[in-house]
Specification:
The complex is a heterodimer. Chain A is an alpha+beta fold. Chain A folds into 6 domains: 65 residues, Phenylalanyl-tRNA Synthetase, Chain B, domain 1 (2-Layer Sandwich); 106 residues, OB fold (Dihydrolipoamide Acetyltransferase, E2P) (Beta Barrel), CATH 2.40.50.140; 197 residues, 3-Layer(bba) Sandwich (Phenylalanyl-tRNA Synthetase, Chain B, domain 3), CATH 3.50.40.10; 68 residues, Phenylalanyl-tRNA Synthetase, Chain B, domain 1; 198 residues, 2-Layer Sandwich (BirA Bifunctional Protein, domain 2), CATH 3.30.930.10; 89 residues, 2-Layer Sandwich (Alpha-Beta Plaits), CATH 3.30.70.380. Chain A is 27% helix and 26% strand. In chain A, strands 26-29-30-34-33-32-31 form a 7-stranded mixed sheet, sandwiched between helices. In chain A, strands 5-4-3-6-9 form a 5-stranded antiparallel sheet, with no helix packed on it. In chain A, strands 11-14-17-18-19 form a 5-stranded mixed sheet. In chain A, α2 crosses α3 and α20 crosses α21. Chain B has 2 domains: 87 residues; 229 residues, BirA Bifunctional Protein, domain 2 (2-Layer Sandwich). Chain B contains 12 helices and 10 strands. In chain B, α1 runs parallel beside α4, α2 runs antiparallel to α4 and α6 packs across α11. The chains are: A alpha+beta, B alpha+beta. At the A-B interface, α2, α7, α10, α12 and α13 of A face α6, β1, β2, β3 and β5 of B.
Amino acid sequence: MRISYEWLGDFLDLDGVTPKDAADVLTRLGVEVESLTMVDLSNIVIGKVLEQKPHPKSRTPLWIHQVDIGVRVEQIIAGAPNAVPGTLVPVALPGTTVPNGKVVKDMNIAGFKASGMLCSADELMLGEDHSGILLLDRGKPGDPLTSIIPSQAIMEAEITSNRPDCMGHLGVARELAAGLGRPMKRDFMPSFTGTADPPGRELVKVSVDDPDLCSRYIGGVIKGVRVGRSPDWMQRRLRACGVRPINNIVDITNYVLFEYAQPLHAFDLARLNGPAIHVRRAREKEKLLSLDGVVRDLTPDMLVIADALRPVAIAGVIGGEETAVTTATTDILLESANFNGASVRQTSRALGLRTEASSRFERALPPELALAGARRAASLIAELAGGTVHREWADVYPRPQQPVRVILRPALIDDVLGTHVPLEEAESILKRLNFHVKVMGDGEWDVLPPVFRLDVTIPEDLVEEVGRVHGYDRVPPTLPGRRHERWTPATPSLDRRLDAIREVLAGAGYSETWSPALVSGRQLEALRIAAHAMRVSNPLSDDMDTLRTSLLPSLMDAMALNRDRGRLDIRIYEIAEAYLARVGDHNGGQPEEPLRLAALASAGATADEGRDALYRLKSVLDGCVAAMSAPSCMYDRASAELFHPGRCAAVMLDGRQLGYIGELHPTVSAGAGIDGRVVAFEVDVEPMVAESRIPRAQPLPRFPRVQRDLAVIVDETVAAGVLHTAIKEVAGDLLEHVRAFDEYRGAQVSEGHKSVAFTLTFRSPERTLTDAEVDKVMAEIKLGLEKRHRARFRE
Amino acid sequence: MTDPSALTAEAVAAIGKAQTSAELERLEVEYLGRKSGRVSKLLEGIDKLSPEERAALGKAVNESKRAIEEALSGRRSQLEENRLADLAETEAIDVTFPGPPLDRGHVHVLTQVRRQIETVLESLGYQVELGPEVETEWYNFEALNITAGHPAREMWDSFYFSPELLLRAHTSPVQIHAMQRIKEPPIYIITPGRCYRRDAPEATRLPYFSQVEGLAVDKGLTFGDLKGTLLYMIQSLYGRERKVRVRPSFFPFTEPSFEFDVSCGICGGMGCKSCRHKGWLEVGGCGMVHPQVLRNGGIDPAQWNGYAWGFGIERMAMLKHDVDDIRLFYESDLRFLEQF
């Protein structure tokens, strides 16, 4: 909300308090001032236009003015045509910086000298209007503009949702007064009431259908108003709040909104059928031409103000054009009501229309505010538009606001804050904020919050009131500590345990990514991995409408992006959840959220490069598993979505499938916009963590090892993993380690066969092995492989 | 027949002139070779000599051998000494020439910052608690005192799957789960994790982000304790010269509620361009746990009280590393990721 510093001065003495001081105090109290704009008008002068001629040469229409600025006449060129001879205008002379930051210089525009600038309201930050020159209604040529318009300071403040009372200057001023310890100049409830006969409630019948949606409706009748311009000071303050002045009646309703935070509306009484007010839900197919010139389709969810025949306003959001106050209006019905916040929010959203009124009602205003606002507006209308205010307004108040008493044990203040606030100070703070405090016999306080503070209901709320005015910066910081009899032993967090994996991946050249979990459902469908996908019912856009079921598409996108930016060799990984709807659940229950580790690496262009890259990636995955101190993985030939049909393995840990590793299917990588081959894996992390064991030290070997190589020629279909298992089973205890290191097809072996070379390491814990012993085991291994896999051997 | 002493003198002279260890090797073979070495050859025809002459020759040959060996080893160590003395010239390389690039992978900056946060708060006795990202309406809102139609719901515009199921808007639901699981305070936990809000992506916010919240439930906790905890955390992460400012604010799940700021690291709180002349940078929200929230977690507010705070990991990382656009964290551009 915008707060005008000058306006606050109506309610309290601001002597010696600069706008910056006020902003700081308000921020400390909880009215967060996000920016403070100083509008310095002292270097703008008033000028009188003597002559206006079109620029003869310029292609865009420009006007050349002769302007009397008191001491001399200056030639000034402007694009707007409204500064006709005789008008008074604000002039910025060369060398001046106008409030919006523009620096004015001497110029020559297509052969004509221009010495200064005629300012719009927008340039002077006196309003949003930049369509024409701001025309002044009085002033002497040559005088500073501040002789008629004071310099301004405008604060942009964020009002928290529990304090609708601070959405008006009066509420903000009350905070400031409490913070500064200065008295308020004005009471909350104006004493003004109308006196004219007959009673207003006899002139207009008001009825409310649904007290849940409208807890109060006040309709005041004011006759004989003269609609015209509102005074300058009011227009200026409205502009400071970002609102364009319209006429005195509309301006007064807006003014009271920015003062009391109570939205009001004025109807032209003559154009109300009945005249009657019926607060009801809209009927099917009803429409309303609203004040902004749009025909609104109404639905029965929306609360409307209707006359005897038709809707004339959308409750709490906007009024109707047909009953609006115009220059022809003489009698008005002034509405000051209280509408249900949730209902106003819903209507405002459905219409896509947020107004100053709706943004206040949304926060649940206190119904007592309606009366204060109505009285204030009526008194201003009487004063500024000459209206006759009738007595005894219609006031339908089906749900009167109930006072809430809060019983406070004053020691709670010190207990919660952790500092000592003297009781007298605490009591004085509450009183300054208009709370009534009654000290009871047992020392407890019976506190009655003011009617405009519906947010205070429990003792802790009172602690907050005392704390923020006392000053939270005065509370010394401490660390908690007492003698605990119970505790939970420390355990490392899951993410910190996974740092072991990150170390391996970093060493292997893989960089970690964090990518959004919301992805495009269409993309998942195209990849055929959408079976368990959870779809958001209100997405922001269709590229973020579904929770990912796999991390691989995100990594593929990341690879494509980095390719586009000139990277060729890319190795990336992510550790994050996938989201899988449970079988049979259609968005009904919470999904499984398995934590996954996925990695992706570019793998050259040829089949051989792809194979080699995949074997390297297997080593990386093995390294990750080893880093978690989990048992080694096994790899079984498999087929899976996203992967190459001949180059994919299921990753098995202790008989349980963790996921897949392989080369991506060429259509998948091409579909992601990646040229060349890509290898990848995606595995569940939690089983690895579960299988993680504390490594136990093994005694270091005391006797030397013996190494032998063995080239096994077998049918092409026999997997290296199968030979590996066979060797281990046959060899017995002396075989310490075996590993395949080469695979060969070609001239040296017959068609349909391959040669797989293994390195075998033998060792005994008890003695140095002799060649004869090792030869014997090697012979057994060969025999076993011959029998099981019809293997032959290369020498 | 050669005179042993003449042969010795010749050998010693040749050795003295040798310049390389290969030359010495050759001289050693020439003179001391077991069969064809010239010293051994001195013994040719020794069997024809008398016993006295034989003994004298043997002795002379042995002496010759020892003298030559001595000369060899002397010259060898001299040559080695010379070589070491000349290393600065003979083996000098251009040390300014760069090494080959190290293919080091990078841990994501948000992981690094999350790690620092966990480490700092674990040192105060807080433990990490995790919870589901797809939450029920009750845990995300109701249990946190944000009832249906509450005006504050605006602050947490959320993504829904069904009227009861949504992506959590904060990690606060984990606090409720933790209270229900632990049951008996003391409770000192932190809850890092991903959250979602229906805000269009821009430089300062994203519809997805990561949060860490802290919760303490114990006997007699105060606002001063909350303030001290925040100060400890901020100073541990950013340096001990940093200050923390706590401003009143509003959240339905805490009472009183605050936002907390850290003093600008560039101007130290005086106001500069980088803090938009405020002197302070917003970090997160905090407050004393609302009694109703304790009740919803199954904790009796008459016996226990608590404080809680929360902030975005991205925000912390932006403040720490001068990142000006939050979207960079999630774009996976290696040119960004490799800076950390």
